[in-house]
Write a structure and sequence with these properties.
alpha/beta; 6-stranded mixed beta sheet; 19 strands; about 25% strand; elongated
């Protein structure tokens, strides 16, 4: 690491001495219940983050929400910077797990891996971002203002956080989103020091279709009924048939339901639909095709209506995001880490920031896997290098953009 400037060396050394503190904060975060719909729990996790920022000298602003968790914004100003747009560190603290999950599966470390609800997705990312902010507060060395935004509802498509994220992106010069990075296939971080981050993400639209028919006794008055279930049944293959793997498009009817009783012609039915696509230009065409299938009757006398429940925008690669990746890759190399990038069908808040025209790099968190399952894990030895790489990439990006 002889190619580091004195400022870079000071910041990364500060982080290098704080592994135990990072693990302690990660334990506290994981053991704080924060399912997306548990406002009180998500807010408690936000208070953990806010208290850490305040102990380390950052100004904290809480953006309240009556239904979902509050957003927590931390600011580290730099009045001397020529460009007052901040570098934005972005992350979410909510998880997909039901209330009480940390009590059933508290934070544990076994065989070099940490386990617990949200340990990789993405509480470890929140931890390294908080420590990077603390490092700059303690050591200086950043030529730009810094903002860290911790949100509360990413796992349900950010219904309350999206406008906050988009507003922050419009103010920022660039965004680093610390979703978990990954181990390339067949690699072992302890021995070969390889890491994969995200080059792009699909957009996603989550929809509910409601169908209405007419009830009738299925024995005595069958011919007077109009089955919403039969209408839905005809439409499922048509919806699934919109899938085009060559274009990167998938349509999945993941949930269905309906009917009144077994001896009643079904007066209602419903399904929930997951659409994934690659480019922003595909979105309206595909949503329109789904709407046309849903709302055009197959069974005479039925009606259908489509509602969008939640939505993520795609993260599309640009020359500016490529430059961010190259800076991050070179920063990782200073710590002996080889970084590659891959496209994923998963969605994230990084699509919202990229859509605002703000250069965005995603999945710069520590290495993890098996997210959304009881087997979710984090490679403990990747915590400090991830923090050091992020800090160095932020410093070099800020200097390049100044």
């Amino acid at each position: 690491m002889s190619d580091l400037t004195p400022e870079e060396a000071r910041v990364t050394a500060w982080l290098g001495a704080r592994k135990d503190e990072m693990v302690a904060l990660l334990r506290e975060m994981v053991d704080t219940d924060s399912g997306s719909y548990d406002k009180a729990g998500v807010d408690r996790a936000g208070q953990v983050v806010a208290a850490f920022h305040q102990r380390n000298g950052l100004a904290v602003e809480t953006i309240p929400d009556s239904r979902y968790g509050d957003a927590v914004k931390a600011l580290l100003p730099n009045p001397a910077a020529n460009d007052q747009r901040p570098v934005l560190l972005l992350g979410h603290r909510d998880t997909v797990f039901p209330q009480g999950e940390p009590g059933r599966r508290p934070f544990t470390v076994k065989g070099g891996r940490a386990y617990g609800p949200g340990v990789a997705d993405m509480k470890a990312g929140i931890v390294i971002e908080a420590f990077v902010a603390a490092a700059f507060a303690s050591c200086g060395g950043l030529s730009a203002p810094l903002m860290m935004l911790t949100t509360s509802d990413e796992e349900i498509a950010s219904p309350s956080s999206r406008p906050i994220i988009e507003a922050a992106a419009r103010e920022a010069r660039c965004v680093f989103n610390a979703e978990p990075s990954r181990l390339p296939a067949g690699s072992d971080f302890a021995t070969d020091r390889r890491q994969s981050i995200t080059s792009g993400r699909k957009g996603g639209v989550f929809m509910r279709a409601e169908f209405t028919g007419k009830a009738a006794h299925s024995g005595a008055n069958y011919d007077k009924g109009v089955s919403a279930i039969v209408d839905l049944g005809h439409k499922i293959p048509r919806l699934q048939g919109l899938t085009d793997l060559e274009r990167g498009v998938t349509v999945n009817v993941g949930l269905i339901g309906g009917g009144q009783t077994v001896n009643t012609v079904a007066p209602h039915a419903w399904c929930e639909i997951d659409l994934r696509y690659v480019t922003a230009a595909q979105r309206d065409e595909l949503v329109g095709a789904i709407r046309a299938i849903v709302e055009t009757p197959v069974v005479a006398g039925t009606t259908g209506a489509l509602t969008i429940k939640g939505e993520f925008l795609p993260l599309e690669r640009t020359p500016e995001s490529t430059a961010l990746f190259e800076t991050y890759r070179d920063a990782a190399a200073a710590f002996g880490i080889s970084v590659s990038a891959e496209f994923t069908g998963g969605c994230a808040d990084s699509g919202f920031t990229a859509a605002q025209g703000c250069p965005t790099l995603c999945s710069v968190g520590p290495i993890g896997g098996m997210a959304h399952t009881p087997d979710e894990f984090l490679e403990i030895e990747s915590l400090v290098p991830a923090a050091q790489t992020l800090a160095l990439a932020v410093m070099r990006t800020a200097a390049r953009m100044e």
